[in-house]
């Protein structure tokens, strides 16, 4: 991989189509901004309909190319393992590129990159595990069986918050099955996906199996989601964009897998070690400056320990280190986008005007004044209620609202009082109560006495307006393959 932080600085990045890096047909490039300074640091291609057309054509040809279509499952697994090794070899560079692009902490990006090879290896091992079945038929001398085959060209649209990690959970199984893909990465963090394309060439994937069309959602994204030659879309991003993409896809009756936003409940019972739960709440909501889809942004605390809990949470939040994401001692870096900073400020002030209280945080810190970066203090809001806008909408910033509850029944009603259903967490020593919560909460993931732990070996996804479809585990192999029924009279 030739791309490094140094080579990216001030560069122009092209599209990746049919195994080649090519200029956009319209000749247009747009800047990517460094969130720690608010200044542009490289440019990437503003792909549009013509480029999407070329990428989908290349992916369709690659799908039919015997070099890919007739490659044995074992060989596809081998290719994925080669890619996995290359990612491991370049993990540090990929982590630096993502941190510079989206402002997330270098230590978190290093941890994410270190986990990617395991995910590719896991799905490399799945390439030869996808099996069909034989089925009885109500007639003699007939063989009736189902096979599983790849879908075709999969369109993948990714967000900026963890570009490669979020891509991997669907790219690895898609390739293991034998699909081809066109990826549209976020215009706010494009570089790591293009760097991955270099590794895909190095690993030896046939040209056109993976294509990357960069650009804005309105340009490259719309063109991709309106295309009629796509077999399935995988979208990870906000619920509003998901709704729009599902509408576009419906015009061609193309199925989607939607990984959308959340407003996850995080519940604390009086029987836990308060410090323990506070640490869980802090890392559950303030990690990545609150820019995680699973952020536990609504915190419900048993009334008997509410005051003590809030005091401890405020104290702990006061000690969170805000700073440059490349520094090892930083706990919270900048937000990724200027718009994101304004959005967070808007929700904090709307919360106050609706009657909530800022217990700690609530403004831009010194780091913002010094650098012009898009920093915001980690913020705890009390006197909150579920009907306030900041408790209803996904903020995608470092803001948590805290509310007391008096009974288990009230707690579950409060927790489920949201249009989202992505994740949830509970802190209690009472296993019966924890399991009752797990059974009743409307969320695709339930964490008990932990938060944000995850495994690529299990299928994850949302309920309600947090989406549909699953990423990870064997389940995803079924989602990205199709069943064919074959009957033989002999
Ligand atoms: P976004 O919806 O603004 O953008 C996501 C992607 O969609 C980008 O690549 C963007 O260019 C593209 N896009 C935008 N408009 C489009 C259109 N009209 N047609 C086609 N593509 C279009 O989301 P974001 O701000 O990049 O990411 C943050 C959001 O992603 C949050 O809501 C977060 O919860 C969600 N998210 C969900 C998960 C999950 O697994 N559920 C994971 C990470 C992020």
UniProtKB/TrEMBL annotation:
Lineage: Bacteria, Pseudomonadati, Pseudomonadota, Alphaproteobacteria, Rhodospirillales
Protein family membership: Belongs to the aldehyde dehydrogenase family.
Name the UniProt record assigns to this protein: Carnitine dehydratase
Aldehyde dehydrogenase domain boundaries: 22-486
Catalytic residues in the record: 259
InterPro entries: Ald_DH/histidinol_DH, Ald_DH_C, Ald_DH_CS_CYS, Ald_DH_CS_GLU, Ald_DH_N, Aldehyde_DH_dom
CDD domains, alphabetized: ALDH_DhaS (cd07114)
Origin species: Thalassospira marina
Keyword Oxidoreductase recorded: yes
Keywords of this entry: Oxidoreductase, Plasmid
Signal peptide feature range: none
